[in-house]
Amino acid sequence: MLEIVDSHLHIWDLDVLHLPWLNSCKGVIQQSFSMDDLVREYAKAGVDFKGGIYIEVDCDDAIKEDEFIFKLNSPKILAKIMRARNLSGHVRLPAGIVGVREPLHIDSSPRGRCLERSFIEGLEVLADKGLIFESCNRVEELIDIYQAAAQVPDLKLVINHCGNVTELTPDYKEAMTKLASLPNVYCKVSGYATEDKVFVKNLLDFISGTFDHSRLIYASNFPVVELYSNFKDHLNSVREYFHDDPDIFSKNAKKLYKLNKPQVFASVIKLRPEKAEYYKALHADPFASVNKMIRECGITHYQIFNREDLLFSIMVYEGDDFEYDMAKMANDPETQRWWRETDPCQTRIEGAQKNEWWADMEMVYDLNKK
């Protein structure tokens, strides 16, 4: 059964929250929506819905929205992206969030807002705190958010809804290609009308051929999806195109939003003295493709230390399926090429198990563990 982590969902209670933008929606979604409503939609689809990422709803009172969502304490809300009314260097950030969104596609947001110095300073604050910025843009301003993202390379930025595209123009393709060239930019596969099957095919061909596979994530945009498609048709269109790919539907989102508790691995191996200098030279300038694959496989921290003929490594893994990711790494041709260079520099330690190259080490003390 397909496992789904929905990277973009909305819920609201109109008895509690006021959403002025709903006045223009002609009754289609002018009602309250709960997590139970979304759970029922996924149940109809026959998938294993693990939960999703709550995205702010452009409420007229961001503090009231914060209180409403945090009080729900729903186990299906796996992470929260809340509203930043005006991103800046002194922006107030609620505790317990994984990121923020300042809507850039609404009428009150002026053209060029994301290029203002205060906005860039806000992005720098998010990067420093390890938080994500969710970017919902007007199509003609995708080139602006590219210029902003390029200035803050340590920030993880997520383009919402394929950039809100309705037509595959040369300008759209150019802007999205530039965004995809930045390793810190992700794209949500959502937001498009599904009636025109040719457009859908062309759009998904372009997106999947432009963005790295590890930076594409499924999103429903529930219930706003009903304004331009419907939940069922949109889900089916993504499933059919990506063939229920577990990376697209859950694993990429889990890594991006850090939904799993980090696992720490320490290991040891011997370094052949006659190969020591070559080994160190390799690691002083490793293959870029190898570092990229390491990150794609959910490893967020990896260091190797040397003392005489011993190598020690510390690795932090934040994916959700270690065997899946290690198999993916082992099958990568560039990683295999790297190992052909490094393996001859190493040899097992005494006492290593037959199936161990690097031998696992047992933790005996942790300062931060109670």
What sort of overall outline do the alpha carbons produce when their principal axes are compared? elongated
Sequence of strands across the biggest β-sheet: 1-2-3-4-5-6-7-8
Number of helices: 12
- Output the structural class: alpha/beta
Order of helices and strands: EHEHEEHEHEHEHEHHEHHEEHHEE
Mean pLDDT across every amino acid position:
95
What is the oligomeric state here? Answer: single chain
**Weakly predicted, low-confidence segments:** none
How many strands, what sense, and barrel or not for the largest sheet?
A: 8 strands, parallel
Intertermini distance:
38 Å
Helix content: 25-40%
Question: How does the SSE layout of this entry go?
Answer:
Layout: E1 3-9, H1 35-45, E2 48-55, H2 62-72, E3 77-83, E4 99-101, H3 117-129, E5 132-135, H4 142-151, E6 156-159, H5 170-180, E7 185-189, H6 197-210, E8 216-218, H7 231-242, H8 246-256, E9 263-271, H9 276-284, H10 288-296, E10 299-307, E11 310-317, H11 322-330, H12 333-342, E12 346-347, E13 359-360
Question: What would you say about this model in short?
Answer:
The protein is of the alpha/beta class and 370 residues long. The protein contains twelve helices and 13 strands.
